[in-house]
Amino acid sequence: MLGSRFEVMEFDASTRSAADAAAAIGCSVSQIAKSLVFRATTTDRPVLVITSGTNRASEAIIGTHLVEAVERANADFVRDRTGFAIGGVPPIGHSEPMFIVIDEDLRSFDEIWAAAGTPNAVFRLKFADLVQLTGGTVAKVAETDKK
Predict the structure, then answer these.
(1) What is the rounded distance in angstroms from the CA atom of residue 115 to the CA atom of residue 92?
(2) What pLDDT score was predicted for residue 144?
(3) DSSP letters of the chain?
(4) Which one, of 108, 77, 62, 114, lies nearest residue 92 by Cα?
(5) How many domains would you assign to the chain?
(6) Rounded alpha-carbon distances, angstroms, from residue 73 to 25, 93, 109, 122, 136
(7) Whole-Å CA distances, 89 to 33, 75, 110
(8) pLDDT at position 7, please?
(9) Which phi and psi (to 5°) does residue 121 adopt?
(10) pLDDT tens-digit readout, 40-71
């Protein structure tokens, strides 16, 4: 699906963090769509939160969308449930289906950038593409990072 509509760009420099990705691409950190994996504490199901690069995902806010508490997933959980290592988790193509929530703040950008499966690869897309590709729920999921 990605092949015909989206171009994966690979960089020599790391795109593992939102700041690294923005520097390599030449865009604002806010335009980076961070894929963060959480673990639902009762059901152990994976939850993918795609948030703007400058925002900090709130476990309390995410939990209200699930009606279940969540916690940050460890590296083994992320790899087991998505098939990707932290720093390269794309918004699609995971090992198993998961509940996906998309940060409404990403809506304000003409283009956004997401990880493409490795810590050095990204692809550009529009907010509407992200929603369509993932089937995610658009909602408030983050607190703006004040740093």
Answers:
(1) 10
(2) 54
(3) -HHHH--EEE-SS--SSHHHHHHHHTS-GGGEEEEEEEEETTT--EEEEEEETTEEE-HHHHHHHHTS-EEEPPHHHHHHHHSS-TT---SS--SS--EEEEEGGGGG-S-EEEE-SSTTEEEEE-HHHHHHHH-PEEE--EEE---
(4) 114
(5) 1
(6) 27, 18, 28, 22, 19
(7) 11, 11, 22
(8) 82
(9) -130, 140
(10) 999 999 999 999 999 999 999 999 988 999 99
pTM of the predicted structure, to 2 decimals:
0.91
Q: What is the CATH number of the domain that holds 121?
A: 3.90.960.10
- In angstroms and rounded to an integer, the radius of gyration of the C-alpha atoms of the chain is 14
Spatial contact of 51 and 62, defined as CB atoms under 8 Å apart = no
Q: How many CB atoms lie within 10 A of CB 26?
A: 6
Query: Which residues partner with 52 through β-bridges?
Result: 33
> Which tokens hold the place of 132?
């369509």
For 77, residues 6+ apart whose C-beta sits below 8 A from its C-beta are 37, 39, 46
Query: Which residues form the domain of 132?
Result: 2-144
